[in-house]
Design brief:
about 190 residues, alpha+beta, 4 helices, about 10% helix, globular, DNA-binding
DNA sequence: TAAGTGATCTCT
DNA sequence: GAGATCACTTAA
């Protein structure tokens, strides 16, 4: 019997970032585009308009203003204000002058926290997946939904606890010995 | 292992 | 306005 595909809405993301992070593993990131994508060499998107759905297999949680690795640690700025907004919205920023990072805002308004999507399908690395899916700053502050061209679906994949590998987050040494070592990176380890 | 890249933020 | 930093990737 065909498994129903459920689009995850704001209620899914209106929880603690650590809960959302674990539960995102095994869900599908779906990208559709009605627009023709110019850069065919680096993007998977075509003129066919068929959505691309990729299994989410690596994420990191940035849990709040007290998290010294979280961008929101210095308070609300032009860049981070989206994290202070409602859940289920998209936070995209540029890193190292080259790579767009895709994040999903968690928890209610005025509590800044988010999930960084680090790996989907065959793509490891947060910069690679945004390039392949043609995700850039134009998605910033938008809501995850079909009309945005980017959303998340539950397609019935069951992920058990022993299939989740937990490690410190990548590239956050600046956060100091405590927060840089928090086990807030989650990797789906299916064999 | 280190260069590349540019927005953002923290000082002046 | 200048300077440092940065939730990364690639080529070597």
């Amino acid at each position: 019997m065909m498994q129903k595909h459920t689009i995850l809405d704001q209620s899914f993301f209106n929880r603690d970032a650590l809960d959302v992070a674990r539960n995102l593993l095994g869900k599908y990131l779906v990208r559709s585009s009605t627009a023709w994508i110019r850069d065919g060499s680096s993007s998977l998107l075509t003129t066919s308009g068929a959505p691309i759905a990729l299994l989410i297999n690596e994420v990191e949680a940035y849990v709040g203003p007290h998290d010294l690795a979280c961008h929101a640690r210095v308070g609300k700025t032009a860049r981070t204000e989206v994290m202070f907004g409602p859940p289920g919205h998209i936070y995209v920023y540029l890193i190292y002058g080259m790579y767009w990072m895709l994040n999903i805002v968690t928890r209610p308004e005025n509590y800044p926290s988010a999930i960084l999507i680090r790996g989907v399908g065959m793509f490891d690395g947060p910069g690679k997946l945004t390039k392949k899916l043609a995700i850039d700053q134009t998605f910033n502050k938008k809501i995850l939904a079909p009309e945005t061209g980017l959303w998340v679906e539950d397609r019935g994949v069951i992920v058990r606890d022993h299939e989740i590998l937990t490690t410190p987050r990548i590239g956050v040494d600046y956060a100091g010995p405590i927060w840089s070592q928090k086990p807030y990176r989650f990797v789906l380890n299916k064999h």
